[in-house]
Amino acid sequence: MRTSHPRNVIPKTITLPSGYEMPRLGYGVYQIPGEFCNTVVCEALARDYRHTDTTTAYRNDFTCAYVVDFVATFGIPSKRNAILPRSEIFFTNKLPPKLRGPIARGTRFQPPAVTPEEPNPPIPQGSEYLYELARKYQKTPAQILFRWSLQKGCVPIVKTVNRERMEENMGIWDWELEDEDVLQLETTEYKPHAGRLVEEGESLWG
Ligand SMILES: NC(=O)c1ccc[n+]([C@@H]2O[C@H](COP(=O)([O-])OP(=O)(O)OC[C@H]3O[C@@H](n4cnc5c(N)ncnc54)[C@H](OP(=O)(O)O)[C@@H]3O)[C@@H](O)[C@H]2O)c1
Which Pfam families does the record associate with it (predicted)? Predict the structure, then answer.
Protein backbone atom coordinates (compact mmCIF):
# COMPACT_ATOMS: atom_id res chain seq x y z
CA MET A 1 0.00 0.00 0.00
CA ARG A 2 1.34 3.44 -0.95
CA THR A 3 0.83 5.94 1.85
CA SER A 4 3.80 8.25 1.33
CA HIS A 5 3.16 11.95 1.05
CA PRO A 6 3.21 13.13 -2.57
CA ARG A 7 6.57 14.49 -3.71
CA ASN A 8 4.90 17.13 -5.81
CA VAL A 9 1.84 18.56 -4.15
CA ILE A 10 -0.71 19.62 -6.75
CA PRO A 11 -2.36 22.90 -5.76
CA LYS A 12 -6.13 22.67 -5.46
CA THR A 13 -6.63 25.68 -7.70
CA ILE A 14 -5.10 26.97 -10.89
CA THR A 15 -4.74 30.68 -11.65
CA LEU A 16 -6.35 31.62 -14.94
CA PRO A 17 -4.97 34.41 -17.13
CA SER A 18 -8.00 36.44 -16.00
CA GLY A 19 -6.70 36.19 -12.43
CA TYR A 20 -9.51 33.94 -11.22
CA GLU A 21 -8.61 30.88 -9.22
CA MET A 22 -10.23 27.82 -10.75
CA PRO A 23 -10.53 24.73 -8.53
CA ARG A 24 -8.77 21.83 -10.22
CA LEU A 25 -11.55 19.39 -9.46
CA GLY A 26 -14.95 20.17 -10.89
CA TYR A 27 -18.40 18.71 -10.42
CA GLY A 28 -20.18 18.07 -13.73
CA VAL A 29 -23.91 17.81 -14.24
CA TYR A 30 -24.29 16.53 -17.79
CA GLN A 31 -27.56 14.57 -18.17
CA ILE A 32 -28.72 15.36 -14.64
CA PRO A 33 -32.28 16.71 -14.88
CA GLY A 34 -32.71 20.24 -13.59
CA GLU A 35 -35.04 19.30 -10.74
CA PHE A 36 -32.50 16.77 -9.50
CA CYS A 37 -29.65 19.31 -9.65
CA ASN A 38 -31.22 21.14 -6.70
CA THR A 39 -30.17 18.27 -4.49
CA VAL A 40 -27.00 16.94 -6.05
CA VAL A 41 -25.26 20.29 -6.58
CA CYS A 42 -26.05 21.18 -2.97
CA GLU A 43 -24.66 17.84 -1.83
CA ALA A 44 -21.52 18.31 -3.92
CA LEU A 45 -20.94 21.76 -2.42
CA ALA A 46 -21.48 20.25 1.03
CA ARG A 47 -18.69 17.79 0.18
CA ASP A 48 -16.23 20.55 -0.64
CA TYR A 49 -16.62 20.67 -4.41
CA ARG A 50 -16.12 24.31 -5.31
CA HIS A 51 -16.36 24.15 -9.10
CA THR A 52 -19.61 23.36 -10.87
CA ASP A 53 -19.62 22.74 -14.60
CA THR A 54 -22.75 23.07 -16.70
CA THR A 55 -23.90 24.53 -20.01
CA THR A 56 -27.11 25.89 -21.44
CA ALA A 57 -27.29 22.75 -23.57
CA TYR A 58 -27.73 20.61 -20.42
CA ARG A 59 -30.91 22.57 -19.60
CA ASN A 60 -29.98 22.61 -15.94
CA ASP A 61 -27.77 25.69 -15.80
CA PHE A 62 -30.45 27.91 -14.26
CA THR A 63 -31.05 25.39 -11.50
CA CYS A 64 -27.32 25.11 -10.84
CA ALA A 65 -26.99 28.89 -10.70
CA TYR A 66 -29.98 29.02 -8.35
CA VAL A 67 -28.32 26.51 -6.01
CA VAL A 68 -25.12 28.57 -5.95
CA ASP A 69 -27.09 31.70 -5.05
CA PHE A 70 -29.15 29.75 -2.52
CA VAL A 71 -26.18 28.41 -0.53
CA ALA A 72 -24.56 31.84 -0.62
CA THR A 73 -27.72 33.39 0.84
CA PHE A 74 -29.34 30.73 3.03
CA GLY A 75 -26.49 28.25 3.52
CA ILE A 76 -26.14 24.53 2.86
CA PRO A 77 -29.09 22.69 4.46
CA SER A 78 -27.11 19.52 5.22
CA LYS A 79 -24.35 21.62 6.85
CA ARG A 80 -26.59 23.34 9.38
CA ASN A 81 -27.17 26.14 6.88
CA ALA A 82 -23.51 27.13 6.84
CA ILE A 83 -23.18 29.98 4.37
CA LEU A 84 -20.91 29.31 1.43
CA PRO A 85 -19.91 32.70 0.01
CA ARG A 86 -20.47 33.12 -3.71
CA SER A 87 -16.83 34.13 -4.11
CA GLU A 88 -15.76 30.63 -3.07
CA ILE A 89 -17.69 28.89 -5.84
CA PHE A 90 -16.36 28.70 -9.38
CA PHE A 91 -19.27 28.32 -11.76
CA THR A 92 -18.72 27.32 -15.37
CA ASN A 93 -21.39 27.79 -17.98
CA LYS A 94 -20.90 27.48 -21.73
CA LEU A 95 -22.94 29.60 -24.06
CA PRO A 96 -24.08 28.44 -27.48
CA PRO A 97 -22.00 30.14 -30.21
CA LYS A 98 -24.82 32.39 -31.48
CA LEU A 99 -25.30 33.90 -28.01
CA ARG A 100 -21.66 34.38 -27.12
CA GLY A 101 -21.08 37.78 -28.67
CA PRO A 102 -24.34 39.52 -27.71
CA ILE A 103 -24.52 38.13 -24.18
CA ALA A 104 -20.86 38.53 -23.36
CA ARG A 105 -20.91 42.20 -24.36
CA GLY A 106 -22.38 44.36 -21.65
CA THR A 107 -23.30 41.68 -19.16
CA ARG A 108 -21.67 40.34 -16.04
CA PHE A 109 -20.49 37.22 -17.84
CA GLN A 110 -16.75 36.79 -17.61
CA PRO A 111 -14.99 35.78 -20.80
CA PRO A 112 -13.65 32.26 -20.71
CA ALA A 113 -10.04 31.60 -19.98
CA VAL A 114 -9.99 27.93 -20.78
CA THR A 115 -11.10 26.04 -23.82
CA PRO A 116 -13.78 23.47 -23.08
CA GLU A 117 -12.50 20.38 -21.39
CA GLU A 118 -13.05 16.98 -22.83
CA PRO A 119 -14.21 13.91 -20.98
CA ASN A 120 -12.26 12.37 -18.21
CA PRO A 121 -10.84 9.00 -19.05
CA PRO A 122 -13.67 6.50 -19.19
CA ILE A 123 -13.94 4.11 -16.29
CA PRO A 124 -13.58 0.87 -18.20
CA GLN A 125 -15.10 -2.29 -16.90
CA GLY A 126 -12.73 -5.19 -16.55
CA SER A 127 -9.44 -3.42 -17.20
CA GLU A 128 -7.07 -5.70 -15.32
CA TYR A 129 -4.24 -3.18 -15.30
CA LEU A 130 -6.46 -0.54 -13.75
CA TYR A 131 -7.56 -2.94 -11.03
CA GLU A 132 -3.93 -3.87 -10.46
CA LEU A 133 -3.15 -0.21 -9.83
CA ALA A 134 -6.19 0.12 -7.60
CA ARG A 135 -4.86 -2.73 -5.46
CA LYS A 136 -1.34 -1.33 -5.47
CA TYR A 137 -2.41 2.11 -4.24
CA GLN A 138 -5.39 0.92 -2.19
CA LYS A 139 -7.62 3.27 -4.18
CA THR A 140 -10.63 2.73 -6.39
CA PRO A 141 -10.32 2.58 -10.19
CA ALA A 142 -12.13 5.94 -10.41
CA GLN A 143 -9.65 7.53 -8.01
CA ILE A 144 -6.74 6.15 -10.04
CA LEU A 145 -8.10 7.72 -13.23
CA PHE A 146 -8.99 11.09 -11.70
CA ARG A 147 -5.63 11.29 -9.94
CA TRP A 148 -3.98 10.47 -13.26
CA SER A 149 -5.88 13.36 -14.86
CA LEU A 150 -4.60 15.69 -12.14
CA GLN A 151 -1.02 14.55 -12.57
CA LYS A 152 -1.36 15.08 -16.33
CA GLY A 153 -2.19 18.72 -15.58
CA CYS A 154 -5.88 18.40 -16.47
CA VAL A 155 -8.87 19.68 -14.55
CA PRO A 156 -11.08 16.62 -14.09
CA ILE A 157 -14.79 17.35 -14.13
CA VAL A 158 -16.41 14.46 -12.33
CA LYS A 159 -20.08 13.65 -12.48
CA THR A 160 -21.92 11.46 -10.05
CA VAL A 161 -25.37 11.59 -8.53
CA ASN A 162 -24.27 9.33 -5.72
CA ARG A 163 -23.15 10.84 -2.39
CA GLU A 164 -20.65 8.09 -1.59
CA ARG A 165 -19.08 8.43 -5.02
CA MET A 166 -18.91 12.22 -4.57
CA GLU A 167 -16.74 11.55 -1.52
CA GLU A 168 -14.79 8.81 -3.25
CA ASN A 169 -14.00 11.08 -6.19
CA MET A 170 -12.66 13.72 -3.80
CA GLY A 171 -10.07 11.31 -2.47
CA ILE A 172 -7.41 12.14 -5.00
CA TRP A 173 -5.26 14.74 -3.25
CA ASP A 174 -2.96 13.31 -0.61
CA TRP A 175 -1.26 10.57 -2.56
CA GLU A 176 0.27 10.19 -5.99
CA LEU A 177 0.81 7.75 -8.82
CA GLU A 178 4.40 6.87 -9.56
CA ASP A 179 5.75 8.25 -12.83
CA GLU A 180 5.93 4.80 -14.41
CA ASP A 181 2.24 4.19 -13.70
CA VAL A 182 1.27 7.58 -15.13
CA LEU A 183 3.15 6.65 -18.29
CA GLN A 184 1.68 3.18 -18.42
CA LEU A 185 -1.84 4.60 -18.30
CA GLU A 186 -1.02 6.90 -21.19
CA THR A 187 -2.63 4.81 -23.85
CA THR A 188 -5.12 5.64 -26.54
CA GLU A 189 -7.76 4.00 -24.40
CA TYR A 190 -7.40 6.44 -21.53
CA LYS A 191 -5.86 9.54 -22.99
CA PRO A 192 -8.17 12.55 -22.60
CA HIS A 193 -8.22 15.55 -24.86
CA ALA A 194 -7.35 18.16 -22.29
CA GLY A 195 -8.55 21.74 -22.34
CA ARG A 196 -5.87 24.38 -22.46
CA LEU A 197 -5.40 27.89 -21.18
CA VAL A 198 -6.16 30.62 -23.66
CA GLU A 199 -3.03 32.54 -24.61
CA GLU A 200 -2.84 36.23 -23.81
CA GLY A 201 -4.28 38.22 -26.72
CA GLU A 202 -5.88 35.16 -28.31
CA SER A 203 -9.42 35.62 -29.59
CA LEU A 204 -11.85 34.33 -26.99
CA TRP A 205 -14.77 33.69 -29.27
CA GLY A 206 -13.07 32.10 -32.28
N1 LIG B 1 -18.64 13.96 -21.90
C2 LIG B 1 -18.47 15.10 -22.54
O3 LIG B 1 -18.44 15.17 -23.78
C4 LIG B 1 -18.32 16.38 -21.78
C5 LIG B 1 -18.08 17.48 -22.50
C6 LIG B 1 -17.95 18.65 -21.84
C7 LIG B 1 -18.08 18.68 -20.48
N8 LIG B 1 -18.28 17.59 -19.74
C9 LIG B 1 -18.41 17.72 -18.29
O10 LIG B 1 -17.72 16.66 -17.67
C11 LIG B 1 -18.63 15.99 -16.80
C12 LIG B 1 -18.29 14.53 -16.77
O13 LIG B 1 -18.46 14.00 -18.07
P14 LIG B 1 -18.07 12.49 -18.36
O15 LIG B 1 -18.41 12.23 -19.78
O16 LIG B 1 -16.70 12.21 -17.86
O17 LIG B 1 -19.01 11.73 -17.34
P18 LIG B 1 -20.23 10.76 -17.64
O19 LIG B 1 -19.68 9.56 -18.34
O20 LIG B 1 -21.37 11.49 -18.25
O21 LIG B 1 -20.64 10.38 -16.16
C22 LIG B 1 -19.75 9.75 -15.29
C23 LIG B 1 -20.22 8.31 -15.06
O24 LIG B 1 -19.33 7.70 -14.13
C25 LIG B 1 -20.09 7.24 -13.02
N26 LIG B 1 -19.23 7.47 -11.86
C27 LIG B 1 -18.89 8.64 -11.27
N28 LIG B 1 -18.06 8.42 -10.25
C29 LIG B 1 -17.86 7.09 -10.20
C30 LIG B 1 -17.10 6.24 -9.37
N31 LIG B 1 -16.38 6.72 -8.37
N32 LIG B 1 -17.12 4.89 -9.60
C33 LIG B 1 -17.86 4.39 -10.59
N34 LIG B 1 -18.61 5.14 -11.44
C35 LIG B 1 -18.60 6.47 -11.23
C36 LIG B 1 -21.38 8.05 -12.99
O37 LIG B 1 -22.45 7.33 -12.44
P38 LIG B 1 -23.23 7.85 -11.13
O39 LIG B 1 -23.73 9.23 -11.41
O40 LIG B 1 -24.33 6.86 -10.96
O41 LIG B 1 -22.22 7.80 -10.02
C42 LIG B 1 -21.61 8.26 -14.49
O43 LIG B 1 -22.29 7.17 -15.03
C44 LIG B 1 -20.02 16.30 -17.36
O45 LIG B 1 -21.01 16.19 -16.38
C46 LIG B 1 -19.87 17.69 -17.87
O47 LIG B 1 -20.09 18.62 -16.82
C48 LIG B 1 -18.41 16.42 -20.39
Answer: Aldo_ket_red
